[in-house]
From TrEMBL:
Gene3D superfamilies: P-loop containing nucleotide triphosphate hydrolases
Descriptive protein name: ABC transporter ATP-binding protein
Domain (ABC transporter): residue spans on this chain: 2-238
GO molecular function: ATP binding; ATP hydrolysis activity; L-isoleucine transmembrane transporter activity; L-phenylalanine transmembrane transporter activity; L-valine transmembrane transporter activity
Keyword Phosphoprotein set for record: no
InterPro entries: AAA+_ATPase (IPR003593), ABC_AA/LPS_Transport (IPR051120), ABC_transporter-like_ATP-bd (IPR003439), BCA_ABC_TP_C (IPR032823), P-loop_NTPase (IPR027417)
Keywords, ordered alphabetically: ATP-binding, Nucleotide-binding, Transport
GO cellular component: plasma membrane
Top-level taxon of origin: Bacteria
GO biological process: D-alanine transmembrane transport; L-alanine transport; L-isoleucine import across plasma membrane; L-valine import across plasma membrane
């Protein structure tokens, strides 16, 4: 579904993502972890098209996408959520999601009425069916995340990029989001999930990729990767002798 070769992003003197290779199989969930500033969001920005790589190649379903603008990638079937959620202000929850439906895979839904119908279905799916007419700005943290999910899902993506959707949630809310992500995968969607909540990464991921200072330092099944001493050290610091 997705293949990255030598993917690199430099900002002035800083190498934020440094020659990273990875791939994602259809219907797989890949967990992307690493300490703050490791380059995770920069990597997702290069996949969604917000940033152009400084070097390297990125292919989606066998087609090079690294020079395409974001909207073309959305049309091809790539959608994302943002770490800092920015609902369209002044629009209802329903209309926020309808906008997603109008700009998604294949160019999106042209009819506003149909886009709203789809939006309603996705809001039911993400558990916001009772807040359709609420102003998006009035939603609390967990509901904003549900809205962010619904907006991305309304684009009917084949590849969904989730950037720290669990930050600030309670343990019960984290479990709900984990179930939601599993439900999305069961619909045939391929998912890359950036997350600091390790319990969620363990329960969700088929494979985990670890970034540290922009470099991929480990990759494999969650149990093995999360016990890798280099990964433990990157997260927790060196053990004192
Ligand atoms: N637009 C930018 N201009 C300059 N430097 C940037 C830019 N975006 C990111 N960086 C830098 O690149 C590095 C990687 O940042 P990035 O946000 O990708 O890390 P992250 O792993 O997502 O971190 P976090 O877990 O805190 O979200 C950081 O040092 C950051 O300051």
């Amino acid at each position: 579904m997705l293949q990255a070769k030598g993917l690199t992003k430099r900002f002035a003197g800083l190498v934020s993502v440094d020659h990273v290779d990875f791939s994602l199989a259809r219907n797989e969930i890949l967990g992307l972890i690493g300490p703050n500033g490791a380059g995770k969001t920069t990597l997702v920005n290069m996949i969604s098209g917000t940033l152009r790589p400084s070097e390297g190649e990125l292919a989606f379903k066998g087609e090079r996408i690294d020079t395409l603008p974001s909207y073309r990638r959305a049309h091809l079937g790539i959608a994302r959520t943002f770490q800092v959620m920015k609902p369209f202000p002044g629009l209802s929850t329903l209309d926020n999601v309808a906008v997603g439906a109008m700009f998604g895979t294949g160019g999106g839904e042209k009819s506003r009425a149909k886009a709203r119908e789809k939006a309603r279905e996705w809001l039911e799916f993400t558990g916001l069916g009772n807040r359709l007419e609420a102003s998006a700005d009035s939603l609390g943290g967990p509901d904003r995340k549900r809205l962010e999910f619904a907006k991305a899902l309304a684009m009917e993506p084949e590849l969904l990029l989730l950037d720290e959707v669990m930050a600030g949630l309670t343990a019960v809310e984290v479990d709900q989001v984990v179930e939601l992500i599993k439900k999305i995968r069961d619909q045939g969607v391929t998912i890359l999930v950036i997350e600091h909540v390790i319990k969620a990464i363990r329960s969700l991921s088929d494979r985990v990729l670890v970034l540290h200072h922009g470099e991929a330092i480990a990759e494999g099944d969650p149990a093995t990767v999360l016990e890798n001493p280099q990964v433990v050290e990157a997260y927790l610091g060196k053990r004192r002798a």
